[in-house]
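Please fill in the sequence for the structure shown.

STRUCTURE ENCODING:
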C-alpha cells in the first residue's frame, strides 16, 4: 500500500497597499502552498468567495480593517480558516482567528519565521504553557461529543492548571498538565466508547476504535442498515462517534445502501475477499452465507480483520436483511510531540 501525503494547507495572502502587497508576495512565496491574491480593493466583496477556499488567510494590513472584513463571515472555529494579521513592516504576525483547530497560531509562527517578525499568540493555553485540549483531542483521533463541554473543560484547565482524565483506552503518555483519575465522578474529561451513564456536564471524548462489520442482502437500503446500527449500539451502550470505519466482503463493494451509509457518516469501508474472511478463526458461520458468498461469515471476520484484533466486542446480530458485529481496535493516548 502506498502512503499518500496530504497537501500542505492552502494559504491566501492579501494586502491593501503596494508595500503590503510586496510583503504578502514574499510570504506567499515562502509558504509551501501560499497564494498571493493581488486584488487590493473590493475585499469586502471578494472575501466571501475566499473564506472556505483557503485553509488560512494572511492579511498584511491593519487589524481593525481585517476585523471589519471578516466579521460577517464568522461561523465557528471548526469551519473558519486560520487568520493572521501582519503589519506592513513585518514586525508582528498576529494570530487573530481559529488559533488552534484552524491553524492560526501555527501559521503566525510560520510567517514570523519567514519574515523575521514576532508571532503574537493570545490563546490562554499557549500563553500559559498549557496543552491545547482541542488540538490534543484531534491529534489523538478523539471525537468531541459536545463543543460546549470542550469549552468548559478547556476553561477548567486554564483556571486550575490541571485536567483530570478518566480513560478506558491504553495510555502511553499524557501531557504534564493532565492527571489520570480512577473514578469517573472525579473526572473533567472521560475517554470512552461507551455511552455511560457518565456524570452530567463532563467532556466526553470518543476514541475512534470501533470497527463495524456488516453483511447485507443485495439491495438493502441505507435506512435499514442505519436502523440496525442504531439498535445494536443502543443495546450494547456504544457511542456512534467512536466508529472508526466499516468492513464487509468485497462482493459488497458496489452495494448502494452500504456505500450511502459510509458517505453520510464520513466513514471508510474495508473490503475483504472470501479467503481472507475464511482465514479468521473463532467466528460465527452460516451455511446460507457460505453458499451465497463463499465465506463462512462476513460481519465478525470483516470487523476483526479491519480492526487488527481478536477483541470482538459485539458478536453477530441479525436483522431481516442485515448482520453486523463490532470489533474494538487498539487505541493508545500519547503526549503531544514537542514543537519545532
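FILLED IN BY: designer on duty
SEQUENCE:
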Amino acid at each position: 500500500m502506498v502512503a499518500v501525503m496530504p497537501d500542505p494547507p492552502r494559504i491566501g495572502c492579501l494586502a491593501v497597499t503596494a508595500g503590503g502587497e510586496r510583503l504578502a508576495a514574499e510570504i506567499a512565496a515562502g509558504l509551501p502552498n501560499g497564494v498571493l491574491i493581488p486584488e487590493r480593493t473590493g475585499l469586502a466583496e471578494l472575501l466571501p468567495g475566499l473564506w472556505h477556499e483557503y485553509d488560512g488567510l494572511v492579511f498584511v494590513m491593519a487589524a481593525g480593517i481585517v476585523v471589519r472584513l471578516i466579521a460577517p463571515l464568522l461561523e465557528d472555529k471548526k469551519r473558519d480558516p486560520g487568520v493572521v494579521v501582519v503589519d506592513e513592516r513585518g514586525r508582528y504576525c498576529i494570530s487573530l482567528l481559529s488559533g488552534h483547530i484552524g491553524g492560526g497560531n501555527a501559521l503566525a509562527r510560520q510567517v514570523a519565521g519567514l519574515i523575521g517578525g514576532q508571532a503574537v499568540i493570545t490563546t490562554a493555553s499557549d500563553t500559559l504553557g498549557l496543552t491545547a485540549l482541542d488540538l490534543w483531542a484531534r491529534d489523538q483521533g478523539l471525537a468531541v461529543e459536545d463543543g460546549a463541554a470542550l469549552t468548559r473543560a478547556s476553561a477548567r484547565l486554564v483556571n486550575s492548571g490541571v485536567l483530570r482524565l478518566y480513560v478506558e483506552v491504553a495510555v502511553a503518555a499524557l501531557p504534564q498538565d493532565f492527571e489520570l483519575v480512577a473514578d469517573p465522578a472525579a473526572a473533567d474529561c472521560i475517554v470512552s466508547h461507551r455511552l455511560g451513564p457518565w456524570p452530567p456536564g463532563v467532556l466526553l471524548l470518543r476514541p475512534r476504535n470501533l470497527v463495524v462489520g456488516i453483511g447485507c442482502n443485495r439491495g438493502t437500503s441505507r435506512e435499514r442498515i442505519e436502523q440496525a446500527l442504531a439498535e445494536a449500539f443502543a443495546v450494547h451502550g456504544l457511542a456512534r462517534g467512536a466508529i472508526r470505519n466499516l468492513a464487509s466482503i468485497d462482493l459488497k463493494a458496489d452495494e448502494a445502501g452500504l456505500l450511502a451509509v459510509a458517505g453520510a457518516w464520513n466513514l471508510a469501508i474495508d473490503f475483504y475477499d472470501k479467503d481472507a474472511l475464511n482465514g479468521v478463526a473463532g467466528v460465527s458461520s452460516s451455511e446460507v452465507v457460505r453458499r451465497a458468498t463463499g465465506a463462512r461469515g462476513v460481519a465478525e471476520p470483516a470487523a476483526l480483520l479491519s480492526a487488527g484484533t481478536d477483541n470482538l466486542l459485539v458478536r453477530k446480530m441479525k436483522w431481516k436483511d442485515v448482520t453486523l458485529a463490532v470489533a474494538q481496535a487498539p487505541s493508545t493516548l500519547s503526549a503531544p510531540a514537542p514543537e519545532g
